[in-house]
């Protein structure tokens, strides 16, 4: 009895498998005939015929698949999405429906419509059933790129690379995904292959230069950036990157040229133009050309108020621009600064003879010991000039006073553009030390302007 029941069940299953197989064969034959029918009857006739059948039976599988094929070929993504979504939804009741094809085309249609989350969901369904499907991996990788999930996109494109090793689109996508994932060394071989086939691809060329910069190949990268400088699209950013590289090696003249080329290009994005003007202004400051720097900084102020530290720079350098000696005090080389300090001492003591005995240069200050003779008195004096704009504390002043005693100087003067702390002022009470801060310093520097 049990054996006969088992035999009956097996026979029934075999019959179902045969029926499904026959339907599947018919489906394949019908699919092969679609293109032939389209050629003979034309798309409009095929669509009308299929739509008539769907009017009577909305779930007519052959008609839905025929229309789906036509709209997919035309890239009418809205209709493709609706048709294959319908097919997918009824697939549990119709085992003859190709689930993989439905999920794939739903995903591609969603990607084409900009529905990125739907695209990822549909393509993930497809890839679970067919992990080595090239188109599924390709479009899933693209969708993941849009979602900024670059590591997962890299995985998809690597599978595509295994399936179609010579596909240059895959090289492009894989190289770009690795670049976006900041895997700069890994991306270079793929970007190079793209350029080998298409040397005119400026986007890849620019990305490759950035990647080379990150990998320590600065010389090669700089050549690429300089090559791209005249390009209307990538030129502004290339000029900016070249300028940064020239600044780093203190080749300020070349940096100025990079930035000036960019400013002459048409249609420079506002954000890049602001960066270029800001960096060019700072380059001019490094070159002690305060006037040109201020012109650019004021242009930035007008275009974008409160951009970075521009307001502070304008306030600082507008004053410097009016007092060349103040510029020298803060920005000049050591020899010019020491020469200014000597003039300061001579101006500080009117109608006197100053004989410099010793000059010592430190990282942020210059110290001068001198003999001063006037008609009424003579003394050994020590001056310490601080270039930093930070507030000087009592520790520094205590050190100065200690050295004053060691060198047997009669009096000492500390000068700072940044001022002195309250504790420093308290410390000098009753001691032979004077503190000169910014306002008095600027006055004396202006007097040097008058007499030098």
From TrEMBL:
GO terms for biological process: DNA restriction-modification system. Keywords: Repeat, TPR repeat. SUPFAM superfamilies: Restriction endonuclease-like, TPR-like. One of its GO terms (molecular function) is endonuclease activity. The keyword Repeat applies. Residues 380-444 form the Restriction endonuclease type IV Mrr domain. It comes from Treponema bryantii. PANTHER family: LIPOPOLYSACCHARIDE ASSEMBLY PROTEIN B (PTHR45586:SF1), TPR REPEAT-CONTAINING PROTEIN PA4667 (PTHR45586). The lineage of its organism: Bacteria, Pseudomonadati, Spirochaetota, Spirochaetia, Spirochaetales. It holds the Pfam family Mrr_cat. This is Tetratricopeptide repeat-containing protein.
């Amino acid at each position: 009895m049990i054996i006969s029941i088992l035999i009956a069940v097996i026979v029934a299953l075999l019959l179902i498998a045969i029926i499904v197989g026959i339907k599947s064969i018919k489906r394949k034959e019908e699919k092969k005939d679609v293109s032939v029918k389209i050629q003979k009857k034309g798309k409009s006739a095929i669509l009308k015929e299929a739509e008539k059948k769907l009017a009577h039976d909305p779930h007519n599988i052959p008609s839905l698949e025929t229309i789906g094929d036509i709209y997919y070929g035309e890239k009418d993504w809205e209709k493709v999405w609706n048709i294959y979504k319908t097919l997918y939804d009824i697939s549990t009741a119709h085992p003859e429906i190709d689930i993989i094809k439905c999920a794939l085309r739903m995903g591609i249609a969603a990607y084409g419509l900009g529905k990125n989350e739907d695209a990822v969901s549909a393509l993930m369904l497809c890839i679970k059933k067919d992990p080595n499907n090239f188109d599924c991996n390709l479009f899933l990788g693209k969708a993941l790129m849009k979602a900024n999930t670059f590591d997962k996109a890299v995985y998809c494109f690597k599978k595509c690379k295994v399936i179609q090793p010579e596909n240059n689109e895959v090289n492009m996508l894989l190289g770009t995904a690795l670049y976006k994932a900041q895997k700069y060394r890994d991306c270079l071989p793929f970007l190079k292959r793209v350029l080998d086939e298409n040397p005119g691809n400026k986007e890849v060329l620019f990305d490759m230069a950035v990647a080379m910069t990150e990998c320590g190949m600065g010389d090669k990268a700089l050549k690429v950036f300089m090559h791209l400088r005249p390009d209307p699209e990538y030129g502004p950013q290339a000029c900016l990157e070249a300028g940064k590289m020239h600044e780093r090696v203190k080749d300020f003249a070349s940096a100025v040229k990079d930035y000036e080329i960019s400013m002459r290009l048409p249609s420079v994005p506002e954000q890049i133009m602001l960066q270029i003007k800001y960096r060019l202004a700072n380059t001019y400051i490094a070159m002690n050309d305060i006037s040109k720097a201020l012109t650019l900084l004021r242009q930035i102020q007008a275009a974008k108020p409160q951009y970075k530290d521009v307001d502070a720079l304008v306030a600082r350098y507008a004053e410097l621009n009016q007092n060349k000696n103040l510029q020298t005090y803060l920005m000049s080389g050591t020899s010019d600064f020491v020469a200014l300090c000597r003039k300061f001492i001579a101006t500080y003591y009117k109608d006197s003879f100053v004989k410099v005995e010793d000059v010592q240069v430190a990282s942020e200050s210059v110290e001068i010991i001198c003999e001063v003779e006037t008609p009424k008195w003579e003394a050994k004096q020590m001056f310490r000039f601080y270039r930093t704009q930070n507030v000087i504390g009592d520790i520094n002043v205590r050190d100065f006073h200690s050295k004053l005693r060691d060198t047997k100087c009669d009096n000492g003067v500390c000068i700072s553009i940044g001022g002195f702390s309250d504790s420093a002022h308290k410390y000098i009470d009753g001691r032979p030390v004077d503190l000169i801060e910014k306002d008095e310093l600027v006055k004396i520097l202006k007097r040097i302007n008058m007499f030098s």
